[in-house]
Amino acid sequence: MWGCNYFPYFSWSGSLFPGGILFALILLFTLVLLVCLVLKFIRTIKSDKTQRNRDRYDSFEILKARYARGDISEKEFIKMKNFLLQS
User: Fold this and answer.
1) DSSP structure string for 32-62
2) Distance, C-alpha 33 to centroid of its chain
3) Are the C-beta atoms of 15 and 8 separated by less than 8 Å?
4) What is the pTM of this model?
5) Which residue, among 83, 58, 78, 57, has the nearest Cα to 67 in the 3D structure?
6) How far apart are CA 33 and CA 51, in angstroms?
7) Torsional sign, CA 53, 56, 60, 61
8) CA-CA-CA-CA torsion sign (49, 53, 59, 63)
9) Among 39, 60, 73, 83, which residue's CB has the most CB atoms within a 10 Å radius?
10) Where in the chain are the domains?
11) What share of the chain is helix, strand, coil (3-state, %, to 5)?
């Protein structure tokens, strides 16, 4: 009775998966967790790049507004603009 495999692919003795269905569930959970972590890491990298570009664009808009108001001279504007484009 104990040695019979009525469900050979999902038995606790492990025909398809070592350890049976419990091991398959743990393996599936681990794979899903790994995929989620990789996707989160990729999204973090992409959002970091877009955030830097957005910050640079916002800084450039502020710089143009300050120059238009006359808060800074043309020389200061060109110097700051070159610094923003360099970064």
Assistant:
1) HHHHHHHHHHHHHHHHHHHHHHHHHHHHHHH
2) 14
3) yes
4) 0.41
5) 78
6) 26
7) positive
8) positive
9) 60
10) 21-86
11) 70, 0, 30
Taking only the tens place, the pLDDT of each residue in 44-66 is 777 666 666 677 778 888 889 99
For tokens 């790049």, name the residue.
49
Give residue 1's identity as a one-letter amino acid code.
M
Q: Which residue's structure tokens are 């350890």?
A: 19
Helix pair angle (21-69, 74-86), 10° resolution: 170
Torsional sign, CA 6, 9, 11, 13: positive
Give me the phi and psi of 21, to 5 degrees please: -65, -30
Name residue 56's amino acid: R
